[in-house]
Amino acid sequence: MIFCVRLNAQCFTIGADLSYTNSVLANGGVYRDINNVEVNPYLLFAQKGANMVRMRLFHTPQNIVGNCGNTITANDINDVILGFTNAKTNGMKLNLAIHYGDYFNDPNKQKRPQAWDGLTGTDLLNSIYNYTISVLQNLKNNNVTPDIVTIGNETTWGFIDDTNTTNGWSWPEDANKFNIALTAVDNFNSSNGTSIKKAVHFTDNTASWLTALFSSQNITNYDIIGVSFYPVWSNFTSLPQLGNLINTLKNTYNKEIMIFETGVPWTTDSSDGYTNIVNSYGNLNYPISPQGQKLFFSDLVNTVYNSGGKGVLYWEPDWISSSMCDQWGQGSSYENMSFFNFTNNNTPLPIFDVFNFCNELSLNNPRESEIQLFPNPAHDKVFFEGVEDKTKIVVLDVFGRIIMKNTLQENNLSISELNSGIYYFVFYIKDYKVVKKMIVN
Hints:
Layout: E1 13-17, H1 21-26, H2 41-48, E2 52-57, H3 77-89, E3 93-98, H4 121-141, E4 148-151, H5 173-192, E5 197-203, H6 207-216, E6 224-229, H7 239-253, E7 256-262, H8 290-306, E8 311-315, E9 340-341, E10 347-348, H9 357-361, E11 372-374, E12 381-385, E13 392-397, E14 402-407, E15 412-414, E16 421-429, E17 432-440
Parallel strand pairs: 1-2, 1-8, 2-3, 3-4, 4-5, 5-6, 6-7, 7-8
Antiparallel strand pairs: 9-10, 11-12, 12-15, 13-14, 13-16, 16-17
Helix pairs in contact: 4-5, 7-8
């Protein structure tokens, strides 16, 4: 398999929000590969080409009672550490979405954690700052420092509110909340030698307005504008309109633009009693089928890439049915938008193919099919076919960093010193560069 790999960066960020994976597994959910064999979902996503995992963080979800009378534990700091550890082990980057609440915050709800109830002014700002620092320190202590941290989730009409529903913007109070959290990330980077990027997160319908509003309120100290794009809730009638938004935001504000959330159905059927959230494409015209889901995701990724965007993350493609209970139901209200076919024992759907986007971008190399690496995954040593002696090889990690250089003298290479994860073996052959993906376990 040939991949588009640069020495200093990946060609495109493409991945998934896997925030529910641990809970699904803990509640009996089973993922299978194309051969109907049970598989580790983190490994499967990495093998298919995902290079980033997003996870959400709730402050104290134990304050929330689930639909089954259970205490919610999903997406607390320990769950995030577990998920990020699995993602990093499989070579994927880490994207943390801090909700600054005990449970889901979104356009309609930006409720602060119970621990901060009654706080105002400096006391509230200090709590935001200290919490942000403590989260990052905890993750670093567990060797899962995120690559991106998002301050808030879909903050379209308020932030860290004292009401159950969003109460609108209040300036300069809300600007102070954002800026103190952003400053906390800066100070953490300075103190720890890290380079975590900072993001804000809007919806496609509000991103243009809110970016301008934030700029007018001096909320500019961030690197990435994350956008949620769900066709069913979008005002857009075509993907080129989304492309124009991405291009305009990028050129106007000099920020990186990423799709942080998206999702569409492959069926309107359900595998359990939890009613589906979405059963249509809104204004877009795609068939509700496995191929229609794949076609949409492919078109979306190409639109974002061609418009200057930096990446696309699909929301909860892991959320298959299980005995898991959230606040509203048991099972999954999203299995019809997942990447797994519940009518075929939760085997992968065709949409997984889109994770090979970088492969599709690569130039056609006549030598690519001649070179083979085996075994893959490998542990101590990897063997080569179709590689001549004295061929220069460079081994890169998923961040594009050079891990090893060698000139081959025989048909194998020791990899015993490599940590578990995904690597790219770059072979320099005359006028060509062939890149092969290798999993080390």
